[in-house]
């Protein structure tokens, strides 16, 4: 047989079929093997991945630490409250009309407006959401609290009508509580909590600080709640909840318990704090009943503040601001109406802490600083100057208070009697030595330099947020102010609108011409705490504390110690801000002079009958004039242990408005039986 005649064509179809069958069986075996591997060998891995795709991490807030006073009395604690919550994942499953109907029913039960309730269930930042705090700033996988402190009856009604309220639940939760020992308020000291903002969440994400508070729905916003927030908040627990494809929570995968926050012991004495609040409020109420002969109406007495500071440590014993507010208004969320009231100028802006943020001219309480500066610039205890009714500078007559005249006196009497013209003469003399009206921004000014050394013009460093720096109106400040305001005042000088006062017209013309110059009038005003120099009540308390303790300027602080969940206490140390470069002989001289203020000077009529021999007090009154307003009342004082400062805006004279209240505060501090002072006229 010849191979030349062999034909392989009939074999090709069978070969192709065989190859195809082999390939098909190979693919089938490979697929079966892969499926077996995935379902048997890798089932745990894929199960875990699938679970991760359907779990969400929810933060379990830690019980927030309590805040107590120096004796351990609770100022801020926690209480259990019934809260109504709405689960967004359930709400999202309902058609729009059913959502609206359900929320309307719930709003009626809760006594809320449907629009307000709807706003509370929306996430901050989503379309149509209100601004914080009306919207929800927490995680969307956590039930949203929409009503706090509901009655058991309301809670039962909601729970029994589950078909009417899908996704709505009644839960018990911990809310901030304010036991108010002795009836204290202390709102500006303690602060409040509110939801964390989206911006803060983003910042925490960038910083990788998940454990510090990322996803925490409440954070400290003011007072010690903010300063010591991280310590008070503790460490939150984490709950991994299982959700379905549409986000409905179906169970809990795992959970870690939270660690409670630490307890903050403050330096506040609740008994003294209550006394200070009562006396400040009473002084303002009394001032409003007094007639102002200058403005021919009763005093407005619109706001005030008082500070009690331990001069040995810098600890704040008490601090009050008026008007104040109920710190409980923030608990469980605040309504827009309540928030507007806190910022309302008509209500006196209650959220503003006057002790830290009110910047006012200090009036004659500034004179001890002027005395220290003058004695370092050539004057001394033997200096005698005329306490005349007035002092003329250029074409302006600067008067003594009520044109009082005491003849030739020294610094001691000038402080005790609060003689303005005595200090005018010193300021004018130093101004001439510094170059007068030269316009030299770098001229040496002993008064300005001493004010800076006493810590004015900068924050005290207190452990409370929001403190302002005040202002020292020196040559450099005046030049900066001129550059910023020149166009405005020049326009006002050229074309004053109808009704502009003659004073403002004249001021605008002079300011436009050369308002950058530091004139003699600026210098003499500076010496008695008038003009554009401003400070806060807390700053003045640190000044008088330094006069008491021999020249130590403390950083005031409210925190005393932090007590951890394990019971271990960590003291918060006192910090020295600076030491006054003032000779001890000068400080002793000022100290002796201020003692006379309470015995024979401008505050004597308020301290008749007070045991000054047992509790020596040093006092300085101040009556600061404010353009377009009534005078600001100041009283700054100290004993061997405490500095007490009170300020009342638009309330009259220093001793007249504040004297009785300051006396009563000292009676509380030293447990002295109150005795009403004799009624006399005085500054």
Q: Which features would summarize this protein structure in a list?
A:
7-stranded mixed sheet; 683 residues; alpha+beta; 24 helices; 19% strand; 25 strands; elongated; 5-stranded antiparallel sheet
What does this structure look like?
Helix 16 crosses helix 23 (584-599) and helix 19 (475-494) packs across helix 20 (502-514). The radius of gyration is 36 Å and the shape is elongated. The chain starts with 10 loop residues before the first helix and ends in a 14-residue tail after the last helix. Mean pLDDT is 87; it is low at 211-216. It has 24 helices and 25 strands. A hairpin with a 2-residue loop joins strand 16 (390-393) and strand 17 (396-399). The chain is an alpha+beta fold and 683 residues long. Strands 2, 3, 4, 5, 10, 20 and 21 form a seven-stranded mixed β-sheet that branches.
Helix content: 25-40%
Distance, first to last CA? 146 Å
Shape verdict:
elongated
- Averaged pLDDT: 87
Helical segment tally?
A: 24
Q: Biggest sheet, open or closed, and with what strands and sense? A: 7 strands, mixed
Oligomer: single chain
**C-alpha Rg, in Å?**
36 Å
Class from secondary-structure proportions: alpha+beta
The counted number of beta strands is 25
How much of the residues is beta strand, in percent?
A: 15-25%
State the low-pLDDT regions, or none. 211-216
């Amino acid at each position: 047989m010849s191979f030349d005649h062999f034909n392989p064509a009939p074999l090709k179809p069978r070969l192709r079929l065989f190859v195809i069958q082999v390939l098909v069986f190979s693919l089938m075996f490979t697929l079966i093997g892969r499926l077996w591997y995935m379902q048997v060998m890798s089932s745990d891995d894929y199960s875990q991945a699938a679970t991760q795709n359907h779990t969400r991490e929810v933060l379990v807030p830690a019980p927030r630490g309590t805040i107590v006073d120096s004796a351990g009395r609770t100022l801020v604690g926690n209480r259990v409250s019934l809260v109504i919550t709405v689960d967004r994942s359930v709400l999202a499953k309902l058609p729009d009309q059913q959502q609206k109907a359900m929320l309307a029913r719930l709003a009626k039960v809760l006594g809320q407006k449907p629009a307000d309730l709807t706003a509370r269930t929306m996430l901050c930042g989503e379309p149509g959401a209100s601004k914080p705090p009306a919207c929800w700033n927490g995680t969307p996988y956590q039930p949203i609290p929409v009503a706090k402190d509901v009655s058991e009856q309301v809670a039962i009604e909601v729970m029994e009508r589950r078909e009417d309220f899908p996704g709505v639940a009644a839960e018990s939760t911990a809310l901030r509580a304010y036991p108010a020992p002795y009836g204290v308020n202390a709102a500006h000291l303690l602060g409040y909590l509110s939801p964390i903002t989206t911006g803060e969440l983003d910042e925490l994400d960038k910083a990788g600080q998940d454990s510090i508070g990322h996803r925490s729905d409440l954070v400290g916003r003011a007072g010690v709640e903010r300063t010591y927030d991280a310590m008070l908040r503790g460490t939150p627990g984490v709950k991994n909840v299982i959700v379905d494809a549409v986000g409905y929570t179906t169970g809990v995968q795992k959970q870690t318990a939270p660690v409670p926050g630490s307890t903050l012991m403050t330096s506040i004495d609740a008994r003294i704090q209550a006394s200070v609040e009562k006396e400040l409020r009473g002084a303002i109420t009394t001032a409003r009943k007094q007639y102002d002969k200058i403005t021919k109406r009763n005093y407005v007495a619109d706001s005030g503040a008082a500070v009690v500071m331990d001069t040995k440590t810098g600890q704040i014993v008490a601090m009050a601001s008026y008007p104040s507010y109920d710190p409980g208004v923030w608990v469980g969320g605040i309504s827009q109406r309540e928030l507007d009231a806190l910022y309302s100028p008509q209500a006196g802006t209650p959220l503003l802490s006057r002790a830290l943020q009110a910047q006012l001219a200090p009036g004659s309480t500034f004179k001890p600083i002027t005395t220290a500066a003058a004695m370092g610039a050539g004057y001394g205890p033997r200096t005698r100057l005329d306490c005349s009714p007035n002092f003329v500078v250029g074409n302006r007559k600067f008067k003594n208070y009520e044109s009082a005249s005491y003849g030739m006196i020294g610094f001691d009497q000038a402080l005790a009697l609060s003689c303005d013209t005595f200090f005018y003469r010193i300021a004018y003399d130093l101004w001439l030595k510094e170059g007068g009206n030269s316009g030299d921004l770098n001229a040496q000014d002993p008064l300005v330099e001493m004010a800076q050394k006493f810590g004015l013009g900068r924050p005290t460093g207190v452990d409370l947020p929001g403190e302002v720096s005040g202002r020292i109106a020196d040559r450099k400040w005046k030049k900066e102010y001129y550059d910023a305001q020149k166009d405005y005042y020049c326009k006002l000088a050229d074309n004053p609108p109808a009704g502009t006062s003659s004073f403002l017209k004249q001021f605008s013309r002079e300011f436009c011409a050369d308002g950058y110059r530091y004139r003699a009038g600026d210098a003499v005003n500076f010496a008695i705490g008038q003009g554009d120099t401003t400070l806060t009540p807390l700053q003045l308390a640190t000044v008088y504390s330094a006069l008491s303790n021999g020249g130590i300027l403390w950083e005031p602080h409210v925190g005393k110690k932090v007590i951890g969940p394990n019971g271990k206490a960590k003291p918060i140390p006192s910090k020295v801000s600076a030491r006054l470069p003032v000779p001890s002989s000068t400080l002793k001289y000022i100290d002796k002079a201020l003692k006379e203020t309470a015995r024979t000077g401008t505050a004597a009529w308020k301290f008749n009958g007070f045991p000054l021999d047992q509790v020596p007090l040093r006092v300085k009154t101040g009556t600061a004039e404010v353009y377009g307003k009534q005078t600001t009342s100041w009283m700054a004082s100290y004993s061997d242990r405490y500095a007490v400062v009170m300020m009342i805006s638009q309330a009259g004279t220093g001793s007249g408005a504040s004297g009785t209240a300051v006396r009563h505060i000292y009676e509380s501090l030293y447990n002295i039986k109150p005795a009403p002072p004799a009624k006399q006229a005085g500054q």
